[in-house]
Design goal:
single chain; alpha/beta; eight-stranded mixed beta sheet; 11 helices; binds S-adenosylmethionine
Length: 274
């Protein structure tokens, strides 16, 4: 971590420290489903050195190891790193900021970020750092949530907050929630970081997230999230309740028997360093 982090990084850091212990039980059944897509798209092969940025509890690192490659995980949350080390004691994890990686230039064959990039105050700086630590010919792969127009789960939360929320609650400004969803814009940012834009793969993947009840998603966002949780915690009780009801109603549509099967979509992006 830089010595005096900007307000958004500070907000994110406090948030992840607060919810780290809930991440595995609340979110991992969703985020883990994208890891095989990410590993395949980035063509992770045996023997490669792979940096898992914003590693959280270390699932990407574990998948990298299972592919026969050599992972190294980094996350700015001390608690996440402690969980990763306990969960995967034979793997290597270190605490540090994705925007200022503590590694030499040209150290890795692959850099992967599963749902971490848009938690950075300056995602373009995360891309520049990925570029720097990659070897020539290496690949950078990441996932970001698809926007509401393509992502039923995101649409439900987005619509509920737009209809009933107060957005002007003094949250530190961060990157747009669905940045990099547009292929051209994504290519441009990656080219600015030095990557070969023509090599970019930018695909959408949709998975089914199985939820035990219609109230699960709202509770997950409120109790185990960071950015949306910050917004929800600053709403009046009336607004919060209206958001809750709108999310539960939206999700009810996806009931299948006693559970909810909610489609969630993300972009899987991979690009090469010349
Ligand atoms: C949504 S979780 C993703 C965890 C994991 N990659 C996965 O596949 O589920 C986002 C992670 O990004 C980390 N993070 C956020 N900002 C960061 C930063 N500036 N540097 C390093 N890690 C950061 C958080 O601590 C958290 O573990």
């Amino acid at each position: 971590m830089e010595q005096v982090p900007d307000k958004f990084t500070q907000f994110e850091h406090e948030g992840w420290e607060r919810v780290a212990h809930k991440y595995d039980s609340v979110w991992s059944s969703l985020t883990r489903q994208f890891i095989p897509y990410l590993i395949n798209a980035a063509e992770v092969n045996a023997g490669m050195s792979v940096l898992d940025v914003a590693c959280g509890p270390g699932y990407v690192s574990d998948a990298v190891r299972k592919a026969g490659a050599i992972p190294r995980g980094i996350d700015f949350s001390e608690k996440m790193i402690a969980i990763a080390k306990t969960t995967f004691p034979d793997l290597s994890f270190v605490q540090g900021d994705a925007q200022n990686l503590p590694f030499e230039d040209a150290s890795f064959n692959r850099v992967l970020i599963n749902f971490g990039l848009l938690h950075l105050a300056h995602p373009e700086q995360g891309c520049a750092e990925a570029y720097r630590v990659l070897k020539s010919g290496g690949r950078f792969g990441f996932t970001v949530w698809a926007g509401p127009e393509k992502n039923p789960g995101a649409k439900i939360v987005n619509d509920a907050i737009e209809a009933h929320g107060d957005l002007d609650v003094g949250l530190p400004e961060g990157p747009p929630h669905y940045l990099y969803g547009d292929r051209q814009e994504c290519q441009q940012v990656l080219e600015q970081a030095g990557f070969d834009g023509n090599s970019m793969n930018h695909n959408m993947r949709t998975v089914e997230w199985r939820l035990p009840s219609a109230s699960y998603f709202f509770q997950a966002e409120r109790d185990a999230g960071v950015r949306t949780a910050g917004l929800l915690s600053r709403q009046s009780p009336e607004r919060l309740d209206a958001i809750r009801v709108a999310i539960e109603n939206g999700i009810g549509r996806y009931a299948r028997g006693s559970e909810i099967v909610l489609p969630m979509a993300a972009r899987v992006v991979v690009v090469s360093k010349p």
